[in-house]
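Before relying on records like the one below, remember that each one covers exactly one chain. Contacts with other chains, cofactors or solvent are not represented anywhere in the record.
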Amino acid sequence: MSNLLFAFAAQANTENTKRVLYTIFIIFIIFLAILSLIGGIIMRVTNYQGRLLDREISDPIRKCKIVREQKHFMKYATKKNKILFFKQAAIPVLIIVVGIVTLLLYIIIGDNWGYNPWNMETGFGSLLITWDFSTIVQVNPGGAAGILVNWPQVSHAPTFDIHNWCGYIVCLCWLVGGLWYLYCVQGMMGRTLRILHLKKTMFDKSLENYNVNDDDIPLDQYKQQ
């Protein structure tokens, strides 16, 4: 009887393990799909940011003819790129500074020099959910031979406490400002790539797809001129 119960338990563990492994595999596939989507979005945003440079330098270059050589173009476009970056990054940097000042005032006024705004008890971490992944795989569970795969156990559930306001404000400022600043950096990189591309195409003296027979002026007439 005991052998029958052990076999039934082992079979149940095997079925449970299969379901967990299948679920993990599906989650992995979804993760790869999301990663690919994020990569595509990043490429689109980078190209869009690069095109913003065209609006800044198109009229001065095409209408005013202020750029005549490649070296001058690189200097002019790079300067415009830096100006655009400083304009875009001003607001996120200000948000980050607000977070830093708020944290310093909280620490100085409350005389709490060891305060960590990210901690799980009195900081922003109290809003997060965490799992204990050490219990996913158990070897020889309960003394039985085999491997048992379980779902990770929740080690901390999200809780909101108004007394943690400093951590909420400070970390939110840092997250919003940091991500916004990264967006600005990405824009600067995209515009830099755009500058390098235009550098090659604007001043490239190429005979690609050129046919001498397509000239409007005959060769003998061109010599007379």
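The CA atoms of residues 89 and 183 lie 9 Å apart.
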